[in-house]
Structure formats: C-alpha cells, structure tokens
Amino acid sequence: MLQIAVASGKGGTGKTTVATNLALALAGEGPVQFLDCDVEEPNAHLFLHPALGEEEAVTIPVPAVEEGQCTACGRCAEVCAFNAIAVLAGHVLTFPELCHGCGGCTLLCPEGALREEKRKIGIVQGGQRGELVFVQGKLEIGAALAPPVVEAVRAKEQGMGTVIIDAAPGTSCPVVAAIRDVDFCLLVTEPTPFGLHDLDLAARLVAELGVPAGVILNRAGEGDELVEEYCQRQGLPLLLKIPFSRNLAAIYAQGKVLVEELPQWREVFLNLGREIGRRVGR
Amino acid sequence: MKVAVTAQGPGLEAEVDSRFGRCTYFVIKEMVTGEVETVANEPGTSGAGIEAAQLLARAGVEAVITGHLGPKAGRALAAAGIAAYQHTGGTVAGAFAALEAGELAPIGNPV
Ligand code: SF4
Ligand code: SF4
User: Fold this and answer.
1) Which of A117, B27, B67, B76 could form a disulfide with B88 if both were Cys (CB 3.0 to 4.6 A apart)?
2) pLDDT, position A142
3) Structural domains of chain A ordered from first start
4) What is the pLDDT confidence band of residue B16, given thresholds at 50, 70 and 90?
C-alpha cells in the first residue's frame, strides 16, 4: 500500500484539484482509494461525483450525570482540561460541545455518578466512482472536534494499492490526523509570498512528523523563483508545476477534472504517482 | 453580598474589561463592608467563560458586571445563581456606582 496525502498551508491553492486528478489518473493502473479528510469542508465529491453509500455516524463518549449518586465533590470539573463539565451550586453541568470524549471524568468520579453517552460529531460515507473507491468524512454542523472524524475516515483505509488522502488546509490538529504516518505528502502552493509563507509552515509540520514530502506549484508562471529557491534551500523536491491558464481554471470551475478533459494531463499525473512511488521505494 | 467587575487591571480605578471569560482580572467588592479584592483570571484555551463562572462561585460572588456574555458562560452563571449585569467602559468604581444607582440592566441568561 502507498499512502499519499495532499496538504497545503492555506486554503484555495488547488489541493483538491491535485488530489482528485492524481487519484483518477492512478485509478486506471490498480486499486485506488480516495479519502476526503477535509471534514470541515469536504468538496472532492464535487469533482469525483461518486455514487455515495449510507452515512455512518462518528460519535464520541460524553458524560451524563446520575444526580442521585453525585455528591458535588467537584473532582470531574478539576480533571477536565476543556471545562466541558462544571460543578456549580451543588450541581453538575455538562457542555457536550466542548467535550473531547477523553473519558477522564467518568473514570475518576469517586461515586461512579457519571456514565457515558454517545454524541454524534460527524459522519463517514463511502462511495464508488468507476474503479475508484471513495470515502469522505463530514463534521456535524456546530461540532468543533474534527480529528476523530478524520481518524474514522482513515480507519477505512484499504490495505492495498494507492490511498490518496485529501487533508484540510492549514497546519492544525485535523491536518496532523490526516497526514500522520503516511508514506508521502504533497504540499500544494502558489507562487506568492503568502503561498510561500504557508508552504513553509506546512513543510515544517511534515518534517516534524517525519513524513517525506514534495512540492506542487499551482498557478505557476509569475514569481515561481520564490518557491523554486525555497525548495532548493530546504532540499524539498519540486515535483510538478501546473501553469496558470484560463482553460484549466474553466475546467475546474465546471466541476471537471483535468485528466479526463485533457489526455496529456493524465500522463503528467501518472508520472507524478510513479515518481512518488520511486521516492518511497515502491 | 459580593459583586465582581471584569477589569483590565487590579483595583477600583482599573478600566472595565468588556469580556467575561477572557477578562484580565475580576475586581470583587463586598458591597456591605466595602472591602475590595482583585483576582487574576487565567483562562485555558477551552471554556473560559465556564471556568470564570466557577472561579466566581468559589469566591462567593453573587453578581457580576461585564460587557458580553456567551451562551455557555450564561448557562454556567445561571446554574451558579450568579446574576449578570451589562456595563462597558469607564472604571471599576464607576461600574459599582452604576449598579448601586440601579442603572444597570441584567443580562438575560440564554438557556
Ligand atoms: S466527580 Fe462525580 S460525584 Fe464528584 S461532582 Fe463530579 S459527578 Fe459528582
Ligand atoms: S470526557 Fe474528558 S473532555 Fe469530556 S467532560 Fe469528561 S474530562 Fe472533560
């Protein structure tokens, strides 16, 4: 199995374009699975148009109090690092929207007055598009805890072929959950000072996680030297440049993918996949 | 009865802080004896308003004067039986005076 994550330091760089094109190009070659781990805004389905299956709930255990057994000792509120449970005027008050489901309060309540209830924080949904196996996660509106949903998507990883993981933009916990332990991470950026700044943040994150990475420069043309010099300094391979072009932007805007509209791009993304395979020794 | 004001600094002459959970200090006055104490507020990253409500409850505060109250802080204060009054700007002393003059409106606790 080869896991390739696609990440970017900021939104709007074309991360999903790269992930979907790479997945579709490789899908002709062997088993490929696409995991949309951008659970706050999963949008790869808009380009892949998979036939979606049943939704599966992702839950975390949150505490519920048995008033009769509670002595209002305050231990639960003390142990909760997130202030998701409070003891006020002799009563326990819970704030499920802040709870991380760590189970600490239930474990440490000396009276056994807490039990765990399931709180739905998101869904996981599978699908199929031709040869391509699709899975996406979606965070429930109002829920703030994305990593468990990302982990639930990754738990569906098939043990063979290629797994393409579309991570959330940025460098926060859900991104870490999406790219942890993958074989390779593509960092998508643009040739602007902002793009470079966010690329640097993302590059530091993957370095810290010990994940080998390469850069894809999207909307290339003007200002490419910025990114080229950066990559050279950091010893990061610049694996692909996607030029800025009206034609490509129009294809994207119609919810279509390059590899299906323009055959030369299939070759480009196939080569990208092969290059990554070589780099990680597959 | 003890009343707290969210403040940007310690003591009666400090400016009122309009934030509740993330205010810098609570200046607490015992309205009968006039005794004043300042408690620093050091919230964590999650649930600052809930933490602050518990801090005030432990300090025996029965009312708080602040600018804004989020829904979670409102729930926690209501559960603690702490009344909340709305006031922004000016000094802490001015906020206490306004409360005593009956000029402050209670902040409705969204349940
Ligand atoms: S630790 Fe248990 S007994 Fe103590 S206040 Fe919390 S729920 Fe009640
Ligand atoms: S399960 Fe963990 S996060 Fe949730 S209320 Fe209990 S201690 Fe806090």
Assistant:
1) B67
2) 78
3) 2-58+122-279 (3.40.50.300), 67-112 (3.30.70.20)
4) very high
Cβ of A100 less than 6 Å from ligand 2: yes
Which residue in A81, A89, A95 is closest to B50 by CB distance?
A95
Q: Which residue has the tokens 């707290």?
A: B4
Between residues 82 and 101 of chain A, which touch chain B (CB distance below 8 Å)? 82-84, 86-89, 91, 93, 95, 97-98
The amino acid that residue A204 corresponds to is R
Q: Residue A64 burial by CB count (10 A; 0-12/13-18/19+): exposed, middle or buried?
A: middle
Helix (H, G, I), strand (E, B) or coil at A39: coil
In order of their start, the domains of chain B are: 2-106 (3.30.420.130)
Write down how long chain B is: 111
Alpha helices in chain A (DSSP H): 15-27, 45-48, 75-79, 104-108, 147-154, 173-179, 193-209, 224-234, 246-253, 258-261, 263-279
C-alpha–C-alpha distance, residues A245 and A263, integer Å: 16
> What whole-number distance in Å separates Cα of residue A53 and Cα of residue A47?
17
DSSP, residue by residue, A152-189 = HHHTT--SSSEEEEEPPSSSSHHHHHHHTT-SEEEEEE
Q: Are A174 and A163 in contact (CB under 8 A)?
A: no
- CA dist., res. B26 & res. B24, Å (int): 7
Of B46, B48, B79, the CB nearest to A93: B79
- Tell me which residue in B44, B48, B76 faces A88 most closely, judged by beta carbons: B76
The predicted structure's pLDDT at residue A11:
86
pLDDT in tens, A106-126: 999 999 999 999 999 999 999
H helix or E strand, kind and range, residue A63: strand A51-65
Mutating to test ligand 2, I would choose from A100, A106, A114, A119 the residue with most ligand atoms within 8 A of its C-beta, which is A100
> What sign results for the dihedral spanned by CA atoms A169, A170, A172, A177?
positive
- Taking a C-beta distance cutoff of 8 angstroms, is the pair A24, A132 a contact? yes
- CA-proximal residue: ligand 1, atom 5 (nearest): A72
Euclidean distance between CA atoms A86 and B76, whole angstroms: 8
pTM: 0.84
